[in-house]
Design a protein that fits this description.
By secondary structure, this protein is α/β, with parallel strands linked by helices. The protein contains 21 helices and 15 strands. The radius of gyration is 27 Å and the shape is globular. Pathway: Amino-acid biosynthesis; L-methionine biosynthesis via de novo pathway; L-cystathionine from O-succinyl-L-homoserine: step 1/1.
């Protein structure tokens, strides 16, 4: 056997004929394999020889150490790339030793990891940073951040492995519409924050509502919702649900007599409401309405987008499901669109099955951005809570403000409810300017810091006049739902309070 040295560090062993044999030996610097395999996993969007080689090395048994250092380097690379997975498996095993006795390990293992995670991470702050990633992350990597897995499909070693996957004995993924490792880590994080058994992430908050209603409300069913809500949700319920024979009762948020009447006189499948609501920030007593609904066999779904899981955990108050537009506080940087449904696994599984059939998939790059945003969720929301409370108090005393809507103010009609079920009152303040349509426009056009835009919950403050932004095409609906020409919705970011206040003061001078 002839040995041909290509570089001082890379050696190819060949047969006497000079061609590379199947027993070719590649020797690399001790740290090369570790670096290559790690980088290949970190940057899953790069498809090339290095990635394929790194994956192959990591899947093979470690070579025996030898004096040349190549085998030892390879062994260290394999051990390093699987360290995170091995650590998580050890924690899960110690938390639930009986898992090995259960045939369907794919179902049993996550619950063990969740148990271990709950012992380790006791606060929303720690959960927002580590849940779904520190323990039990399925991607084998020593990267701190969860990698973006950009793939549309997943492969199996053989038919038996595929059969094992189909029958629940092998944990894997199959097709991008049915699941993705990056998205799975995100779903685990949200479940931990909401105290939910399961979460499914989808392409937008609006689609989360559509998927939930489509999966859980039967044809010919009846739903109850509130007058104050996101307009596009109402449009979908009014225009699309009747095509499936679904009827609807609309009540005012605080009208519990109307809710009871609807429950008594209809076979109600679901009560779907926001709390706080959009744009008047009305609050629903979740525990009360959960008991009312459940006594009649109806489900309760809370859109908690305005609260975020930092300020409110509706599932712990009795709600069956919680949905979020993750575009808002969850991601928090005005740079990605997504939504999710959290709750009991029995119900979320039905939404997930519908989602798998219909689509509406969250891109893994979007999942990564939301994961990254969630690491500062508790910090952002605490800052926004504080600034919004101060801003609401300031505005309520300003002579050019006619009315302020904010759950943290004693003047708010459901302040007593918000105090009992929320730990913070959110970063949105709605108010009515003491002026007409044109005066309110001049105010909006005079602010310098907030962006004049839709949406809310991001780091940048956003301000809008709903009569133009959301209801410009329907004055009739503005009148029905109380959207006055002088109404303002102000989403407070993470800027300094004094800067925002001074900006509003100078803008109010134009009214």
């Amino acid at each position: 056997m002839a040995t041909v040295s290509l570089t001082p560090q890379v050696v190819f062993s060949t047969e006497s004929g000079g061609a590379l044999s199947s027993a070719t030996i590649l020797r690399f610097p001790p740290n090369f394999v570790r670096q290559l395999s790690t980088k290949a996993r970190r940057n899953c969007s790069n498809i090339g020889v290095a990635q394929i080689v790194a994956a192959a090395w990591s899947d093979r048994p470690a070579a025996r150490p030898n004096s040349g250092g190549g085998g030892g380097g390879r062994a260290r690379g394999v051990a390093s790339s699987h360290a995170a997975a091995a650590s998580a498996a050890a924690v899960a095993a110690s938390a639930a030793a009986e898992v090995s006795a259960i045939p369907n390990a794919k179902v049993a293992q996550p619950s063990a990891v969740v148990q271990a995670e709950r012992k380790l991470l006791g606060s929303d702050a720690s959960l927002a940073v580590h849940a779904g990633e520190r323990l039990g992350r399925r991607i084998a990597t020593d990267a701190i951040t969860t990698p973006v897995v950009n793939t549309s499909a997943y492969w199996f070693n053989n038919s038996q492995e595929l059969i094992d996957f189909k029958e629940g004995r092998h944990a894997s993924f199959e097709y991008g519409r049915y699941g993705n490792p990056t998205t799975e880590a995100l779903e685990k994080k949200m479940s931990a924050l909401e105290k939910a058994e399961s979460t499914v992430f989808v392409a937008s908050g609006m689609y989360a509502a559509v998927a939930m209603l489509s999966a859980l409300v039967p044809a010919g069913g009846h739903i109850v919702t509130t007058t104050d809500c996101y307009r596009k949700t109402r449009i979908y319920m009014e225009n699309e649900l009747p095509k499936r024979g679904v009827s609807m009762t609309v009540i005012r948020p605080a009208d519990m007599d109307a809710l009871q009447n609807a429950l008594d006189n209809n076979n109600v499948s679901l009560f779907f409401t926001e709390t706080p609501t959009n744009p008047f920030l009305r609050c629903i007593d979740v525990e009360l309405v959960a008991n009312m609904c459940h006594s009649k066999g109806a489900l309760l779904c809370i859109d908690s987008t305005f609260a975020s899981p930092i300020n409110q955990k509706a599932l712990t108050l009795g709600a069956d499901l919680v949905i979020h537009s993750a575009t808002k506080y969850i991601a928090g940087h005005n740079d990605v669109i997504g939504g999710c449904v959290s709750g009991r696994d029995e119900l979320v599984s039905k939404v997930r099955i519908y989602h798998h059939v219909v689509g509406g998939v969250l891109n893994p790059n979007a999942a990564y951005l939301i994961l990254r945003g969630m690491k500062t969720l508790h910090l952002r929301v605490q800052c926004q809570n504080n600034t919004a409370m101060r801003m609401a108090q300031f505005l309520e005393e300003h002579p050019k403000i006619a009315r302020v809507y904010y759950p943290g103010l004693p003047s708010h009609p459901e302040h007593h409810i918000a105090k009992t079920q929320m730990t913070g009152f959110g970063g949105v303040v709605s108010f009515e300017v003491a002026g007409d349509f044109d005066g309110t426009r001049r105010f909006i056009d005079s602010v310098k810091i907030p962006y004049h835009a839709p949406s809310f919950g991001g780091c940048e403050s956003i301000i809008d006049q709903p009569a133009i932004m959301s209801y410009w095409d329907s004055k009739e609906q503005r009148d029905i739902y109380g959207i006055k020409d002088n109404l303002i919705r102000f989403s407070i970011g993470v800027e300094d309070f004094e800067d925002l206040k001074n900006d509003l003061v100078q803008a109010l001078e134009k009214v």
